[in-house]
Protein 1
Amino acid sequence: MKRKILTLSISLILISVMITSYLSFHLNMDSLVDQKQGELLSYCKLINKAIEEDLQHGLIIDYGYYAETFSEQIGERVTFVKADGAILADSLMGEDYVNMDNHKNREEIQKALEKGFGASNRSSSTLGKEFLYVAVNLVDNGELVLITRVAMEIDRLDMMGDFLKDAALKSAAVGIAIAIILSIIFAFWLTRPIKTLVEHARKISGGDYTSRVAFQTEDELQELGETLNEMAEKLHLAVEEMEKAENIRREFVANVTHELKTPLTSITGFVETLQDGADENPQIRKKFLDIIAVETARLKRLINDILAISDIESGREVNTDTDINVKEVIEEIINFLEPVIVKKSITVKTHYPYEIYIGGNRDRFKQMMLNLIENAVKYSNENGMIKIDVQKTEEMINIMVEDNGIGIAKEHLPRLFERFYRVDKSRSQKVGGTGLGLAIVKHIVALFDGDIKVESEEGKGTKFTVRLPI
Ligand SMILES: Nc1ncnc2c1ncn2[C@@H]1O[C@H](COP(=O)(O)OP(=O)(O)OP(=O)(O)O)[C@@H](O)[C@H]1O
Ligand SMILES: [Mg+2]
């Protein structure tokens, strides 16, 4: 990119500098010739004026002397030509002027004879050198007296031309050098943001999503940079989310494996003991088989809970649009839990203002309520009290399940709804808990677009409040 910009700009610079130098050199040369011609013309006129005055005073003119003197003064060759083309005098030839050809046919003389003055740029056949000639007629009393010609050696003009050429080349070189330096700086300045963008994109593709570009070029490059930043931000979030999901999944799998292993180990252990002869004692056999039955039930519950969670998570839903009679469901659960309630002498108080219905999957709703009420029973002390209160507002149904049981210490509350989270593992396991109940509740509440909150004080009791939109 940088090389392309440099090649392009340097070629443009070279071409334009070459063209301008060429043109300016030739224009300068032309104007130099014009200027010199003008000078020669005024010399001719001055000389003519002097001769004219002498003629008017009736002086006899020594043209040889005049040619020499004027030539010395102006530093150029001076020739006087008669009207018929014969040479009167020539500063360069001196006495030898008599050998010079008739000049009638010389370009400047012809032009002077025609128009009063003439100029030409040609080689002198007398001297074999190139001269710039200017000739002007001298007319006295309406009669052409002579033609004064002043000539300058082209060599001298060429010398000036060389000087001009030299100056043009030097200034072109300086100009090119400056322009090349500027274009290198410009190319660097132009490609720097692109380089930054490339580095940034490379970092992103290498997995560094925190890389951000920040430059203010106020153009499309800045826009591109900002777009890349947004893309990196989005990728970052997506990757983080994926990693989080992956961690949760990994943790879940590890937990599931662990939780399944515990009852399985226990079952295998007791079965082996029985095989080893323990089954001969009927009492021991009964005890062991009972334990195996409890562990198997626990295993079954665990598997059911795991399946329930994955079902809810994957969104596999059945019977979504039933009108659920809230009171009926709660009564069914209380009946189901009756044996434990009676055994622990727990009082259950329910309060429904009137019949309340809610749309949704009845099985899921029941599962949620069962988990909450079962927990209240499970974690209640003997002679405890459980209150179930259902209220209805315009948009919501609020269901409170409150107990005065063992309560939950504050530090456990934020993690309560996580899968497999149990406050007291040994105690919870003793009462048959898997730690999935509240996770399932949370999932079902979300399915109903509702929310759940818990208030608890250790040793005093716990209150769960579920709010579901109607
Ligand atoms: N009403 C409550 N009173 C006191 N502690 C509770 C109550 N409800 C839940 N907990 C605590 O929260 C933990 C998580 O409850 P969760 O229902 O998820 O699991 P669990 O009851 O142990 O097992 P299960 O999956 O069989 O329900 C419980 O282990 C218990 O320590
Ligand atoms: Mg539970």
Protein 2
Amino acid sequence: MFPYNESKTMRVLIVDDERNIRLSLKKYLGLEHIDSEGAESGEAALEYLEGETFDAVLLDLKLPGMSGQAVLEWMRQRGILSPVIMISAHGQIPDAVNALKSGAQDYLVKPFDPAELIIKLQNLIENKRRENRIEAEERTAGQGNTLIGNTPAMKRLSQQIDKIAGTDITVLITGESGTGKEVAAREIHARSLNKGEPFVAVNIGGIHEGLMESELFGHEKGSFTGAAARKQGLFELAGRGCLFLDEIGEMPMPLQVKLLRVLQERKIRRLGGVSDIPVNARIISATNRDLEAMVGEGRFREDLYYRLNVFRIELPPLRDRPEDIPLLGEHLLNKVASRMGRSVPTLTAEAVDRLRAYPFPGNIRELENILERAIIYAEGNVITNEAIDLHERPAAVITTPETMSLEAIEKEAILKSLARYQGNRTKAAGELGISRKTILNKLKTYGF
Ligand SMILES: Nc1ncnc2c1ncn2[C@@H]1O[C@H](COP(=O)(O)OP(=O)(O)OP(=O)(O)O)[C@@H](O)[C@H]1O
Ligand SMILES: [Mg+2]
């Protein structure tokens, strides 16, 4: 299975004048669950490219009429940035190199092994995904003060962030799950002198142990089976910005040793590489585990702990600052309602009291989920006590309490799906297997 992303099949445009090549590539890609279209000429390719965004374009260099090179130039002039793999015949290698110079991402020489094509496509997608992730992170990093809270604890936190933002000190952020550790890390970066540089976040608990070293430090082409191209590690990608090591407590011991060495020497070496690359990024790590206890039990290296814990930020649980609930509630309702494409409701005084009395084991994330459900249950634009359901459930499951009518279940499914697709009705309709028109009609009956 081609690891593209959870919801989308990859679409590739194959531009080649030889019908057999188009058909056999299409068949081969199909086996890897990749969708494709074939265009028999440069001119036909332009028509496809005008109508649709492809995830990648395989472009034969030599075509009758408009050449592959001309198609590539046309694409880039038009701002069509889909990655291009140029396909050249043996004698055309210098041309293929020129194509790389004018913006193709890679090239293949005919005849080629289709497996090689799959690896190249995989690399293109992986790079694109990393670029997108870093771009998205840069965008959110610029959004200014996102740490809502007026209680003394939150004010102190804000002062602490101001104090360290202008330095490059290493920070360890601790706190229960959902207390805003990642928000705080982004805030430190957003207030720093290097806020224009990348903020790269990595969830240590989410990376397979065997891939962690290459993910963090990068690798050279051929350094291990499957390393088809050079890859920059996240330390390198963070540049002079910030590297956020989330769930640092999940780091396996052998990697802890390597990370310690990198922090001591402030330089990395790609796997299979021969030269050192300086580490200039600020390192922020976070965990909801008790690292001190882990050190005591021999599960986390003490020397690494001291390297990471140079400056400590402790996020308070929400139950210790219930005074912030009205303000946070307002902020989160704004956020959730706009994600769902709804007008922003208000909370009644009783609803606020009910929330203030609740201990929030899942902290702010749980408050956000509760408010999301409340918007779905709410009648009109006011969230009352009754709309607040304090039982946390996994977000993806459609819950069906016994008192819920079939209509209410349907309404919840539709609104949740709309929320997942940022209000895009066509996509929600696709997911639910109903027509867009049905969604529009339903929304009308709900009074939206
Ligand atoms: N002070 C805050 N102001 C506004 N929103 C916040 C604040 N803190 C957290 N949030 C929101 O709460 C949710 C959880 O925050 P975040 O992901 O930073 O928590 P976390 O501590 O990293 O949690 P985990 O340990 O589960 O990874 C996010 O949606 C975030 O936007
Ligand atoms: Mg987190």
